Amino acid sequence: MGRWGTASSGSRRRGGYLLACVALLVVAAPRPARGEPYLMVRAGAKCSDCHTNLTGGGKRTAFAHIHAHDIEHDLDLLPIPPGVKPFDGDITSYVSIGGDLRVRNTTVFRDEGARVARNRAFRSHVQSNDLAVQEALLYGQVDLWPDVATFYIDQSVKGGANTREVFGLIRGFLPWDTYVKAGRLFPAYGLRVQDDDAFIRRRVGYTFDSPDEGAEVGFAPGPFFLATSVTNGIAGDHDVATTVNGYTVLTDVPVVRNVMVGASFARQTNRRLVGGGYFGSNLWRFTYLGEIDAISDRTPNAPSGDDEFAAYGELDWLLFDWLNLRGTFDFVKVKHDKDQTRYAIGAEPFINRVIQPRIQYRINNAPGSQPLLNQDELWVELHLFF
Length: 386
What we know:
CATH class of the domain at 9-46 and 60-82 and 103-131 and 194-203 and 223-385: Mainly Beta
Structural class: mainly beta
Radius of gyration: 21 Å
C-alpha cells in the first residue's frame, strides 16, 4: 500500500487517533484467540502432541486435526455443505502436507520531529501503512516407516524458496518415547511464541529465521519432555552450539487445572551463554505464560554485549467460549540505561478450523537515543492454515 504521505498533518493526526481507537474497540468486541504455547497450556498438551516437529511449530499432526474444534473453539461460521470435510493434509497413508499463510497490514504511528517521547500509548503521526505477506510456509512429511522413520521439510515460499527445516526423524522403538533427528532444524530452546521480535526470541537468539544444521535427541515419556541439540553455530569456526530444553505439563491440578514448567540452557559460543525458565497455567478463564532469560555475551564489540536479561509475559482471557483477549509484555534489560519494553493488546479469533484473523495494537518504548524504536503499531492479519 505504501505511505499515506500526502495528507495534511492535522488529518494524519486525526487518522492516527481514529485507527488506534478502532483497534481498541475491535479488541473489546466479541472475538477469540489463537495462542501457540498458550494453546498448549489451555489444552494440557505437549508440543509433540500437535506438531510433527516435536519441539513445536510447523506441520500439524493427526491429533491436532482430529481435535481441532476442541483446541481452537472455532465459531464454524462458514456455510459449509453438510458432509463436506475439511482437507486434513493427508495425500496417502504415507505422505501428508501442511501450510501456513499470514497476510498482514501494518500501520506505524510515530511522533514527528527529532525528539520522540517514551511511554506513549498514542502517537500523532501515521508514519506508514503497508500490506505484506508476512509468512508463506509449506510443510511436507513422508512416513518412510509409519511411527518409526519420517522425512520432514518446512519450506518458506515467501519471496523465493528458503528451507527452514529439513530433517530425518527416527522414533518409536526406544524406551521413554526417545527420538533422534538430524538435518537442518530449529535448536530446542524456550517458549516458541509466534512473534520473532519478542525479546525472548530475537535478543536471546532463537527465532523462526535462524535454523542451523545439526542433530537433536529427545525424550517424551508421559507428561515430560527433554531435548538437547548440537548444531554448527557460527559458520566457518571450529566450535559448535548446544542447547538443552525440558518441561512438564501437568493436568487436572486442583484450582488451576493445567500447569506447565520448563527451563532451557544454551551455549552458543565459548563467549556467549543464555539460560532461563518459563511457566504457564490457568485460573478460571485466564491462561498465563511467562519466560525470563539471562544473557551473558563476552564477545568483543558484540551488538548484544550489553543485554543482561529478557522477559516475556502473556495473559489470555477466554471471555466466552469463542472469545479470547490477549495482552503481552516484553522487556529487555540493557546496560547504560538502554532498556526496551513493549506492550500489546489484541484479539485472534478462529472463524473456523482453517481461518484465523488477528488484530493487535503494540506500543514500543526505547531510549531517547533510538527514536525509531519509540513507535506504536496496529496489525490486522489474516491467517489461513491446514
